[in-house]
Amino acid sequence: MTEKDYTSEEKGGVICITLAGFASLIAILYFFIFKRNIRKSTANTHLFGYFVCLMLANMMQAIGTIMNTEWVAKGGIETGPFCTAQGGIKQAGNLAITMWSNAIAVYLFELIFLRIKSGLIVFWLMVVFGWGIVLTIVLVGPFVIQEPANGPYFGISGAWCWITNEYPSSQVYLEYLFMFFAAGLTFVLYTFILLRVRGNLTKVDGKWKVQFLPSGESWKLSLSRDLLDMQVLNLVKRMIWYPITYTVLLLPIAFARLYEFSGMKVPFGVTVFTATVFNLMGFINVILLVTTEKLFPDAQTLPEFSTPRKHISISLSKSGGIVPFTLESSETSDRYMQERAARVMPGHSRMDSALSYVSTKPLAKTEDQRQA
Fold first, then answer.
1. With helix as H, strand as E and coil as C, how does the chain read?
2. What is the residue-averaged pLDDT of the chain?
3. What are the sequence ranges of the domains in the chain?
4. How sure is the predictor about 214, in pLDDT bands with cuts at 50, 70 and 90?
5. Cα gap 297→232, rounded to integer Å
6. Tens of pLDDT along 25-72?
7. pTM for the whole structure
8. CA 44 from chain center: how many Å?
9. For residue 317, what are the contacts with CB-CB under 8 A and spacing of at least 6?
10. CA nearest 14: which of 286, 279, 281?
């Protein structure tokens, strides 16, 4: 016997939300089966491991949503072990998405902005710590917060099972507060990373310096970029869509829930729309990962991310200008240019090629000029 029967509108809405869960689950399975080659391009980093954790979190969220098929088949919801399990899985999935979205942002900030590479032990400690925090928050509800007078902690909440409305503080502080924090933190960190690799934010003599130049002089920012910055610039530009997407998918359901928590009635159609959008997060994350996959520089061919950088000032006032690509002449460079000239102009003799090259070199200063 169900304790909450669905109306035809509720049943149709729950089916729509459940289909979003199926779409996310299929996309995640596609990632695990066909997209494991991303491991190679991130071999010298821990990005692949963090992405796996994020995909597992998205999978938990999708499974919690797909469990609605039980209620659709019965035409309503009933309390019991299945309902409790759905509530716990949904909360765990949502919290884990928050945790690993933050972990990826913090790791990229450490790697690209601070230019520090943590070891494998730190990665595994982070994995244990991250999943441990999620598990602790989920278990603290039914084992610590739950009170007999208020009924079960996980139970019927709207058209599915989650934290019941008898525990409104837990709904806000043990889930939605974490989500808002994650959205803000990831956006700020990715913004700093982007400014760093673009050259807007540099560290000179131990002090941070912000520089924004007109579009006509933006080329000067490239002077403070190196091979690593150039390789990851396009990637970071695309990865900024992760926090943006997370925020866009989160805000509708978060505001709808907070509006409902305040005692106001939210139309069921709005609830269905916001929940459907939110449960497409796994699907959208896989799309973002697949589209950015080709932009990942092969970490095996790059220098260590912690390699010290040499700063070049963009100030032209003292030097009178910058001449890019100026190489100091040497016997090796002279021989290379002579051989190159011979290859480019095969009809000329080696002597003609050498003379052609020498004629392009600046004249040496005379003795009088040197003394002057």
1. CCCEECCHHHHHHHHHHHHHHHHHHHHHHHHHHHCCCHHHHCCCCCHHHHHHHHHHHHHHHHHHHHCHHHHHHHCEECCCHHHHHHHHHHHHHHHHHHHHHHHHHHHHHHHHHCCCCCCHHHHHHHHHHHHHHHHHHHHHHHHHHCCHHHCCCEEEECCEEEECCCCHHHHHHHHHHHHHHHHHHHHHHHHHHHHHHHCCEEEECCEEEECCCCHHHHHHHHHHCCHHHHHHHHHHHHHCHHHHHHHHHHHHHHHHHHHHHCCCCCCHHHHHHHHHHHCCHHHHHHHHHHHHHHHCCCHHHCCCCCCCCCCCCCCCCCCCCCCCCCCCCCHHHHHHHHHHHHHHCCCCCHHHHHHHHHHHCCCCCCHHHHHC
2. 77
3. 4-301, 331-371
4. low
5. 7
6. 999 999 888 765 555 555 567 888 888 999 999 999 999 999 999 999
7. 0.74
8. 17
9. none
10. 279
Q: Which residues contact 286 (CB under 8 A, 6 or more apart)?
A: 24, 27, 28, 30, 31, 55, 58
CATH superfamily, domain 4-301, is: Rhodopsin 7-helix transmembrane proteins (1.20.1070.10)
Strands 154-157 and 76-77: unpaired
Q: How far apart are CA 62 and CA 325, in angstroms?
A: 53
pLDDT tens, position by position, 69-104 = 999 999 999 999 999 999 999 999 999 999 999 998
Contact 230, 173 (CB under 8 A): no
Condensed to tens digits (0 to 9), the pLDDT of residues 266-306 reads 899 999 999 999 999 999 999 888 877 665 555 554 445 45
Judge contact between 209 and 203, C-beta under 8 A.
yes
Could you give the angle at the alpha carbon of 303 between the alpha carbons of 299 and 307, nearest 5°? 130
State how far the alpha carbon of 74 is from the alpha carbons of 6, 55, 222, 272, in Å: 9, 30, 62, 19
Residue 133 and residue 123: Cα distance in Å, rounded? 15
